[in-house]
Write a structure and sequence with these properties.
Elements lengths: L5 E5 L11 H6 L1 H13 L4 H7 L2 H5 L1 H22 L6 E4 L3 H8 L5 H21 L2 E7 L3 H10 L3 E7 L2 E7 H13 L4 E5 L11 H12 L10 E3 L4 E3 L2 H10 L7 H9 L5 E5 L4 H9 L5 E4 L2 H12 L1
Parallel strand pairs: 1-2, 1-9, 2-7, 9-10
Antiparallel strand pairs: 3-5, 3-6, 4-5, 7-8
Length: about 300
Protein backbone atom coordinates (compact mmCIF):
# COMPACT_ATOMS: atom_id res chain seq x y z
CA UNK A 1 0.00 0.00 0.00
CA UNK A 2 1.07 3.58 -0.59
CA UNK A 3 -0.02 5.99 2.13
CA UNK A 4 0.93 9.38 3.48
CA UNK A 5 -1.17 9.22 6.65
CA UNK A 6 1.03 7.16 8.97
CA UNK A 7 1.12 7.15 12.75
CA UNK A 8 4.25 6.20 14.69
CA UNK A 9 4.09 4.05 17.85
CA UNK A 10 6.94 3.25 20.26
CA UNK A 11 7.48 0.23 22.51
CA UNK A 12 7.34 0.24 26.29
CA UNK A 13 9.28 -1.51 29.03
CA UNK A 14 9.05 -5.29 29.01
CA UNK A 15 9.70 -5.69 25.28
CA UNK A 16 13.49 -5.75 25.70
CA UNK A 17 15.61 -8.66 24.45
CA UNK A 18 19.37 -9.16 24.48
CA UNK A 19 20.75 -8.37 21.03
CA UNK A 20 18.10 -5.80 20.19
CA UNK A 21 19.27 -3.27 17.64
CA UNK A 22 22.47 -5.08 16.66
CA UNK A 23 21.26 -6.10 13.20
CA UNK A 24 19.84 -2.62 12.57
CA UNK A 25 23.24 -1.10 13.41
CA UNK A 26 24.87 -3.48 10.94
CA UNK A 27 22.37 -2.56 8.24
CA UNK A 28 21.90 1.18 8.79
CA UNK A 29 24.22 4.14 9.14
CA UNK A 30 21.46 6.12 10.84
CA UNK A 31 20.88 3.44 13.47
CA UNK A 32 24.62 3.13 14.08
CA UNK A 33 24.99 6.88 14.56
CA UNK A 34 22.06 6.96 17.02
CA UNK A 35 23.66 4.29 19.19
CA UNK A 36 27.04 6.02 18.99
CA UNK A 37 25.42 9.25 20.15
CA UNK A 38 23.65 7.42 22.98
CA UNK A 39 26.95 5.94 24.15
CA UNK A 40 28.52 9.41 24.16
CA UNK A 41 25.67 10.94 26.16
CA UNK A 42 25.61 8.19 28.80
CA UNK A 43 28.66 7.41 30.92
CA UNK A 44 28.07 3.65 30.55
CA UNK A 45 27.64 2.65 26.87
CA UNK A 46 24.04 1.51 26.45
CA UNK A 47 24.81 -0.30 23.19
CA UNK A 48 26.81 -2.92 25.07
CA UNK A 49 23.86 -3.75 27.32
CA UNK A 50 21.48 -3.86 24.33
CA UNK A 51 23.68 -6.09 22.21
CA UNK A 52 25.35 -8.30 24.82
CA UNK A 53 23.21 -8.19 27.95
CA UNK A 54 23.07 -9.96 30.28
CA UNK A 55 19.27 -10.02 30.41
CA UNK A 56 19.24 -9.31 34.16
CA UNK A 57 21.13 -6.06 33.60
CA UNK A 58 19.03 -5.11 30.58
CA UNK A 59 15.83 -5.66 32.58
CA UNK A 60 16.79 -3.21 35.34
CA UNK A 61 14.85 0.03 34.89
CA UNK A 62 17.99 2.19 34.98
CA UNK A 63 19.30 0.29 31.93
CA UNK A 64 16.11 -0.87 30.28
CA UNK A 65 14.52 2.54 29.82
CA UNK A 66 17.42 4.30 28.03
CA UNK A 67 18.11 1.07 26.10
CA UNK A 68 14.60 0.85 24.66
CA UNK A 69 14.52 4.60 23.99
CA UNK A 70 17.80 4.43 22.04
CA UNK A 71 16.90 1.24 20.20
CA UNK A 72 13.44 2.50 19.21
CA UNK A 73 14.80 5.74 17.76
CA UNK A 74 17.61 3.83 16.03
CA UNK A 75 14.88 1.74 14.38
CA UNK A 76 13.14 4.95 13.32
CA UNK A 77 16.40 6.31 11.89
CA UNK A 78 16.89 3.13 9.85
CA UNK A 79 13.31 3.37 8.60
CA UNK A 80 13.68 6.99 7.56
CA UNK A 81 16.80 6.16 5.57
CA UNK A 82 14.68 3.87 3.45
CA UNK A 83 11.38 5.75 3.54
CA UNK A 84 11.75 9.43 4.51
CA UNK A 85 8.11 10.01 5.45
CA UNK A 86 6.72 12.13 8.27
CA UNK A 87 4.02 10.90 10.65
CA UNK A 88 0.76 12.71 11.24
CA UNK A 89 0.71 11.65 14.90
CA UNK A 90 3.02 9.93 17.41
CA UNK A 91 2.39 7.90 20.55
CA UNK A 92 4.21 5.47 22.80
CA UNK A 93 3.42 3.13 25.67
CA UNK A 94 4.79 4.34 29.01
CA UNK A 95 8.52 5.02 28.44
CA UNK A 96 7.75 4.80 24.71
CA UNK A 97 6.00 8.15 25.08
CA UNK A 98 9.45 9.75 25.36
CA UNK A 99 10.58 8.26 22.04
CA UNK A 100 7.28 9.42 20.54
CA UNK A 101 7.85 12.93 21.89
CA UNK A 102 11.34 12.99 20.39
CA UNK A 103 10.02 11.76 17.03
CA UNK A 104 7.49 14.61 17.17
CA UNK A 105 10.25 17.15 17.82
CA UNK A 106 9.41 17.92 21.46
CA UNK A 107 13.07 17.60 22.46
CA UNK A 108 16.37 16.48 20.97
CA UNK A 109 17.52 12.87 21.02
CA UNK A 110 20.23 13.69 23.57
CA UNK A 111 17.89 15.68 25.83
CA UNK A 112 15.29 12.92 25.70
CA UNK A 113 17.92 10.32 26.52
CA UNK A 114 18.98 12.33 29.54
CA UNK A 115 15.37 12.52 30.70
CA UNK A 116 14.68 8.83 30.26
CA UNK A 117 17.96 7.86 31.95
CA UNK A 118 16.95 9.95 34.98
CA UNK A 119 13.44 8.47 34.90
CA UNK A 120 14.78 4.92 34.79
CA UNK A 121 17.19 5.58 37.65
CA UNK A 122 14.54 7.19 39.85
CA UNK A 123 11.96 4.50 39.13
CA UNK A 124 14.59 1.84 39.83
CA UNK A 125 15.30 3.45 43.18
CA UNK A 126 11.56 3.49 43.96
CA UNK A 127 11.32 -0.19 43.06
CA UNK A 128 14.13 -1.06 45.47
CA UNK A 129 12.56 0.97 48.25
CA UNK A 130 9.17 -0.75 47.99
CA UNK A 131 7.76 -4.26 47.63
CA UNK A 132 5.54 -3.86 44.59
CA UNK A 133 4.23 -6.07 41.84
CA UNK A 134 1.88 -6.06 38.84
CA UNK A 135 -0.58 -8.44 37.18
CA UNK A 136 -2.41 -8.56 33.85
CA UNK A 137 -6.15 -9.07 34.13
CA UNK A 138 -7.64 -10.60 30.99
CA UNK A 139 -11.22 -10.39 29.72
CA UNK A 140 -12.60 -8.67 32.82
CA UNK A 141 -15.06 -5.81 33.16
CA UNK A 142 -13.01 -2.60 33.54
CA UNK A 143 -15.38 -1.21 36.18
CA UNK A 144 -15.07 -4.41 38.23
CA UNK A 145 -11.27 -4.20 38.05
CA UNK A 146 -11.21 -0.53 39.05
CA UNK A 147 -13.65 -1.07 41.93
CA UNK A 148 -11.75 -4.11 43.20
CA UNK A 149 -8.45 -2.24 43.10
CA UNK A 150 -9.95 0.64 45.06
CA UNK A 151 -11.35 -1.75 47.66
CA UNK A 152 -7.96 -3.38 48.18
CA UNK A 153 -5.75 -0.27 47.92
CA UNK A 154 -4.19 -1.25 44.59
CA UNK A 155 -4.02 0.80 41.38
CA UNK A 156 -5.00 0.29 37.76
CA UNK A 157 -1.73 0.71 35.85
CA UNK A 158 -2.72 0.10 32.21
CA UNK A 159 -5.83 0.05 30.07
CA UNK A 160 -4.00 -1.55 27.15
CA UNK A 161 -6.76 -2.82 24.89
CA UNK A 162 -10.16 -4.51 25.10
CA UNK A 163 -9.62 -7.56 27.28
CA UNK A 164 -6.35 -6.51 28.92
CA UNK A 165 -5.95 -4.37 32.04
CA UNK A 166 -2.87 -4.30 34.27
CA UNK A 167 -3.03 -3.67 38.01
CA UNK A 168 -0.17 -2.49 40.21
CA UNK A 169 0.73 -1.73 43.81
CA UNK A 170 2.10 -3.21 46.99
CA UNK A 171 2.46 -6.98 46.82
CA UNK A 172 -0.11 -7.76 49.56
CA UNK A 173 -2.61 -5.33 48.03
CA UNK A 174 -2.25 -6.72 44.50
CA UNK A 175 -2.49 -10.29 45.77
CA UNK A 176 -5.68 -9.40 47.66
CA UNK A 177 -7.15 -7.76 44.55
CA UNK A 178 -6.26 -10.84 42.48
CA UNK A 179 -7.99 -13.12 44.99
CA UNK A 180 -11.09 -10.92 44.94
CA UNK A 181 -11.19 -10.85 41.14
CA UNK A 182 -10.88 -14.63 40.98
CA UNK A 183 -13.71 -14.93 43.48
CA UNK A 184 -15.77 -12.64 41.24
CA UNK A 185 -15.27 -15.03 38.32
CA UNK A 186 -12.31 -13.53 36.46
CA UNK A 187 -10.67 -16.59 34.97
CA UNK A 188 -7.31 -15.46 33.65
CA UNK A 189 -4.86 -13.37 35.66
CA UNK A 190 -1.14 -13.33 34.89
CA UNK A 191 1.37 -12.10 37.50
CA UNK A 192 4.05 -10.03 35.73
CA UNK A 193 7.78 -10.47 36.23
CA UNK A 194 8.68 -6.85 36.97
CA UNK A 195 10.99 -5.19 39.46
CA UNK A 196 8.34 -2.93 40.92
CA UNK A 197 4.87 -1.43 40.85
CA UNK A 198 5.01 0.87 37.82
CA UNK A 199 2.19 3.37 37.26
CA UNK A 200 1.09 3.19 40.88
CA UNK A 201 1.38 5.36 43.98
CA UNK A 202 4.52 3.39 44.93
CA UNK A 203 6.31 5.41 42.24
CA UNK A 204 5.47 8.74 43.91
CA UNK A 205 9.03 9.38 45.08
CA UNK A 206 10.24 8.95 41.50
CA UNK A 207 7.55 11.31 40.18
CA UNK A 208 8.38 13.96 42.77
CA UNK A 209 12.06 13.96 41.87
CA UNK A 210 11.48 13.66 38.12
CA UNK A 211 9.28 16.75 38.20
CA UNK A 212 12.35 18.87 38.93
CA UNK A 213 14.29 17.18 36.14
CA UNK A 214 11.51 17.95 33.68
CA UNK A 215 11.23 21.56 34.81
CA UNK A 216 14.85 22.12 33.84
CA UNK A 217 14.41 20.47 30.42
CA UNK A 218 13.62 22.20 27.14
CA UNK A 219 10.20 21.00 25.96
CA UNK A 220 9.00 22.40 22.66
CA UNK A 221 5.85 22.41 20.54
CA UNK A 222 5.49 19.07 18.70
CA UNK A 223 5.42 19.05 14.92
CA UNK A 224 2.45 16.66 15.09
CA UNK A 225 0.00 15.80 17.89
CA UNK A 226 1.40 13.59 20.65
CA UNK A 227 -0.82 10.92 22.20
CA UNK A 228 -0.17 10.95 25.94
CA UNK A 229 -0.85 8.02 28.22
CA UNK A 230 -2.18 9.70 31.31
CA UNK A 231 -4.95 11.55 29.42
CA UNK A 232 -5.52 8.99 26.69
CA UNK A 233 -5.70 11.74 24.10
CA UNK A 234 -3.78 14.11 21.83
CA UNK A 235 -1.70 16.98 23.24
CA UNK A 236 0.22 19.82 21.57
CA UNK A 237 0.80 22.30 24.40
CA UNK A 238 4.38 22.06 25.77
CA UNK A 239 3.35 22.79 29.37
CA UNK A 240 0.72 20.04 29.24
CA UNK A 241 3.19 17.63 27.65
CA UNK A 242 5.70 18.31 30.41
CA UNK A 243 3.12 17.74 33.14
CA UNK A 244 1.76 14.58 31.54
CA UNK A 245 5.22 13.06 31.14
CA UNK A 246 5.65 13.34 34.91
CA UNK A 247 2.09 12.33 35.84
CA UNK A 248 2.27 9.05 33.92
CA UNK A 249 4.90 7.69 36.34
CA UNK A 250 2.14 7.17 38.92
CA UNK A 251 -0.93 7.48 36.67
CA UNK A 252 -2.79 4.93 34.58
CA UNK A 253 -1.60 4.30 31.02
CA UNK A 254 -4.69 4.74 28.85
CA UNK A 255 -3.21 3.16 25.75
CA UNK A 256 -6.48 2.18 24.11
CA UNK A 257 -7.59 5.80 24.40
CA UNK A 258 -4.30 6.95 22.89
CA UNK A 259 -4.74 4.68 19.88
CA UNK A 260 -8.33 5.68 19.28
CA UNK A 261 -7.30 9.35 19.43
CA UNK A 262 -4.55 8.68 16.88
CA UNK A 263 -7.00 6.91 14.57
CA UNK A 264 -9.42 9.85 14.83
CA UNK A 265 -6.98 11.85 12.69
CA UNK A 266 -7.56 9.54 9.74
CA UNK A 267 -4.47 7.38 10.17
CA UNK A 268 -4.25 4.83 7.34
CA UNK A 269 -1.43 2.76 8.86
CA UNK A 270 0.55 2.50 12.09
CA UNK A 271 4.23 1.61 12.39
CA UNK A 272 5.57 0.28 15.70
CA UNK A 273 9.24 1.05 16.43
CA UNK A 274 11.30 -0.78 19.03
CA UNK A 275 11.72 -4.33 20.29
CA UNK A 276 8.87 -6.80 20.10
CA UNK A 277 5.39 -6.49 18.67
CA UNK A 278 3.33 -5.84 21.78
CA UNK A 279 1.58 -2.72 20.46
CA UNK A 280 0.70 -4.46 17.21
CA UNK A 281 -0.89 -7.20 19.28
CA UNK A 282 -2.97 -4.62 21.12
CA UNK A 283 -4.04 -3.16 17.76
CA UNK A 284 -5.59 -6.47 16.74
CA UNK A 285 -7.99 -6.02 19.65
CA UNK A 286 -8.47 -2.24 19.35
CA UNK A 287 -9.07 -2.04 15.59
CA UNK A 288 -7.90 -4.92 13.38
CA UNK A 289 -8.93 -3.06 10.21
CA UNK A 290 -5.98 -0.63 10.47
CA UNK A 291 -2.77 -2.00 8.89
CA UNK A 292 0.01 -2.17 11.48
CA UNK A 293 3.71 -2.74 10.82
CA UNK A 294 6.85 -3.20 12.91
CA UNK A 295 10.45 -2.06 12.75
CA UNK A 296 12.39 -3.90 15.44
CA UNK A 297 14.83 -5.87 13.33
CA UNK A 298 16.51 -5.53 9.94
CA UNK A 299 14.10 -8.16 8.59
CA UNK A 300 11.12 -6.18 9.93
CA UNK A 301 12.51 -3.08 8.24
CA UNK A 302 12.64 -4.74 4.83
CA UNK A 303 9.11 -6.12 5.15
CA UNK A 304 7.62 -2.84 6.37
CA UNK A 305 9.24 -0.69 3.68
CA UNK A 306 8.13 -3.15 1.02
CA UNK A 307 4.53 -3.13 2.28
CA UNK A 308 4.33 0.65 2.58
CA UNK A 309 5.75 1.28 -0.88
CA UNK A 310 3.92 -1.52 -2.72
Amino acid sequence: MTTTRIGFMFSGQGAQTVGMGADLVAASKGARELFEQADQVLSDPISRVCFDGPLAALTESRNCQPAIYAMSLAALAAFRERLPCAPIVCGGLSLGEFAAAQAAGVFSFADGLGLIAARGRLMGDACQATDGTMAAILNADPELVATTCAEHDADVANYNCPGQIVISGGRPQVEAAIAALKAAGVGKIIPLQVDGAFHSRLMQSAADQFSGVLEAAAVGVPSVPLAQNVVGGLVTDPAAIRGNLCAQITGSVRWEGCVRAMLSLGVEALVEFGPGKVLSGFMRRIDPTVPTYNVGTAEDLEKTVAELTD
